[in-house]
Write a structure and sequence with these properties.
By secondary structure, this protein is α/β, with parallel strands linked by helices. The protein has twelve helices and 21 strands.
Length: about 500
């Protein structure tokens, strides 16, 4: 066997770290593979679609054969609420949220602009968030900015400061410091961002002009004027937020797309399949719009939610099993680009589990660190492969936030962010598997398939299932504050090569 010299030594001429397995996710497929890492730079030196023998490397090289476990790229969770700084840090924080991420093979988080106080709507507020995060993060963390009424003059400066995109609400968010936007506000934001390397994201729910229910705020609020049943019945809550909330919002967004035709748009946490035809037709017309869905929409179904179990409350709501089937089909077809956690925790008291009132309970599902196993548990029964899961949770999420070339795949020159996954193992979710701050999740007591055995961040092992977290080294995560990569008419530049925004895998 002739082995390229680049496979065995790095530019710094130090001994590499070598990982091999009969099951490696690279280049959009599962293959026998070798990943060669520079411990000095934290980058991947080379990847090979074959298992190179230990004899191909210098004596003393750290060489591990993980077969039959899977070597796959670390996940990029592009939708997480870490809630720090401010008093809501008691709900979640950078240390606990990123530690939970490492447990689940997630190596990069992108933090939402709310529910921290203050929200990330100005450069000064971003600086406060950076100060709070410094030295606390177990994985790499990037930040989104927020669009609220009146902050349009802050948006370009936030792009320059390194935010990876912007989020706004078309319905009241439930927190007073992050109000919803009007059509006028959206137009102002689009005009400011039209030529910037960013993405504008929408919480796409709006109350239609004529509706059976006025609904409640996104996170908590009063019941509808005419509820369809008891406030402790999940069916009552589901009836209060019909699919029309989502489709009406999407229609309004698409009507504004002409304002900035080159600005990528994105629908966060799509729940209702009725929105998919609208997005499909919009893309056919050349509108640059993508959508994500969440682990909970793909794994939990309304029919199985017991009355009073407010751990399942989120907005948009978890819908019926038939709707869930449609979301899976859309993922397979590429009509939904990414899968994220939308980890949005709170304290146990605010979840009102004992009272069981779905309308007064805080809306949000705690999932960070469980998502890969949740997705595999449901997906493998539907014929979903691990390369598909890696595409939705690593490659495409990295693409969404402008991190391709560093994150999202096992490629030479990219960060050595790696998850060692045992798809044949399983575990029951107990509080010991909940590394987020408040131990409340609808997955408690459920058996999940697939266990993360190791998590590596930029060439350093930060978690093992056998030994726990690398507490002696402490948090190794970096804050991702570089200005995101340029988009040119929907074309992303990665390592000097142009890859269409609507394309799929590199070399796939």
């Amino acid at each position: 066997m002739v082995v390229p010299q680049s496979a065995v030594t790095s530019a710094e001429d130090v001994l590499p770290i070598v990982m091999v397995s009969t099951r490696t996710i690279m280049h959009g497929k599962e293959t026998p593979g070798t990943v060669v890492i520079s411990p000095q730079t934290g980058k991947i030196i080379s990847v090979h679609e074959s298992i190179l023998p230990q004899s191909a490397f210098p004596a003393g090289t750290a060489y591990t054969d993980y077969s039959p476990k899977v070597i796959m790229p670390g996940l990029v969770d592009a939708h997480v609420h870490l809630n720090e700084p401010g008093w809501r840090t008691e709900w979640e924080g950078f240390e606990t949220g990123t530690r939970a991420a490492a447990f689940g093979g997630v190596t990069t988080l992108i933090d939402m602009p709310l529910n921290a106080i203050p929200p990330t709507t100005t450069v000064q507020n971003l600086k406060l968030k950076i100060e709070a995060a410094t030295g606390q993060c177990w994985v790499d963390v990037g930040f989104y900015g927020g669009v609220i009424p009146g902050n349009e003059d802050e948006l370009v400066d936030l792009v320059q400061a390194g935010v990876k995109g912007f989020k706004c609400f078309l319905i009241e968010s439930g927190v007073e410091e992050f109000p919803s936007v009007t059509v006028k506000d959206i137009k102002k934001a689009m005009n400011k961002l039209r030529d910037q390397p960013t993405v504008l994201m929408f919480h796409a729910e709006m109350i239609p002009p004529l509706a059976m229910s006025v609904g409640d705020s996104v996170l908590h609020g009063d019941p509808p004027l005419r509820p369809s049943g008891p406030l402790t019945a999940y069916s009552t809550f589901l009836d209060s937020r019909p699919p029309a909330f989502e489709t009406y919002a999407i229609e309004n967004i698409l009507n504004l797309a002409f304002t900035a035709p080159n600005l990528p748009l994105h629908i966060v946490h799509l729940s209702a399949v009725e929105g998919l035809p609208l997005l499909r037709k919009a893309r056919e017309r050349g509108i640059k719009i993508t959508a994500e869905t969440c682990f909970h929409y793909l794994a939990l179904a309304a029919e199985n939610i017991k009355d009073g179990d407010t751990r399942h409350k989120c907005c948009p709501p978890i819908r019926e099993a038939a709707n869930q089937d449609g979301l899976w089909e859309a993922l397979k077809k590429g009509e939904i680009a990414t899968v994220v956690s939308d980890h949005s925790p709170c304290t146990a008291g605010l979840k009102m589990f004992e009272q069981g009132d779905f309308f007064q309970a805080w809306g949000g599902i705690s999932t960070v660190g469980l998502g890969l196993s949740v997705l595999w548990t449901e997906g493998k029964n539907r014929g979903i492969s691990l390369p598909e899961i890696a595409k939705w949770t690593s490659y495409m999420t990295a693409k969404q936030v402008g991190l391709l070339g560093k994150k999202g795949a096992l490629e030479a020159g990219w960060d050595a962010d790696i998850c060692i996954f045992d798809p044949e193992a399983s575990f029951v979710v107990t509080q010991s598997e909940m590394h987020f701050k408040n131990k409340l999740t609808p997955y408690e007591s459920k058996r999940l398939n697939g266990v993360v055995n190791e998590t590596w961040l930029r060439g350093k092992q930060i978690y093992t299932s056998a030994g726990g977290f690398a507490d002696k080294a402490g948090p190794q995560g970096q804050l991702l504050l570089e200005k995101r990569k340029d988009f040119q008419r929907g074309v992303e530049v990665v390592n000097g090569k142009r890859h269409p925004w609507w394309g799929s895998w590199l070399r796939f």
